[in-house]
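Good morning C.,

I know you're traveling, so I'll keep this short. The sequence:
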Amino acid sequence: MFNVVLVEPEIPPNTGNIGRLCLATRSRMHLVKPLGFSLDNRQLKRAGLDYWEEVDVQIWDSFRELQRVQGAAARYFFLTTKSERAYWDVEFRDGDFLVFGRETKGLPESLLAKNQEACLTIPMDGTRSLNVATAVAIVLFEAIRQQRAADQKHRNVAEAASVKLVKEIRGKS
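The tokens, ready to paste straight into the viewer:
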């Protein structure tokens, strides 16, 4: 399972759409306050359709609180236009946290400065940024693609080992 973190989200329909993405991918959504809307907002629920109640959402008073509770082993990746490192250059792992900022300002500069080695970007031409829901979908589905490819590789290795063992057993009898 991946974790999608929205730091101070401002636009209810974006958060609702991201919630639906999280539900569809069995990812956990983390919302870091302050939120620019109420969780009872009808636009939020409309964008999340009738799935909103099923979304695994955790609310945090601060990003620091989220990090403290997760522990030192948690891996965080910060999506920003202010990085040269493309999101596809990372080997994502189950449990990783994908952190996205406010729609109007992105992530706080102080957070980016403290985590430069974990900053990622979605390379693009012709525009300075993408809608946050689009950005989440791009990176989240790449992480899932990588995870499924790694799982398939492990299954293939295990299957090959089983076939080899069966052949060895048959050869001895």
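Safe travels,
E.
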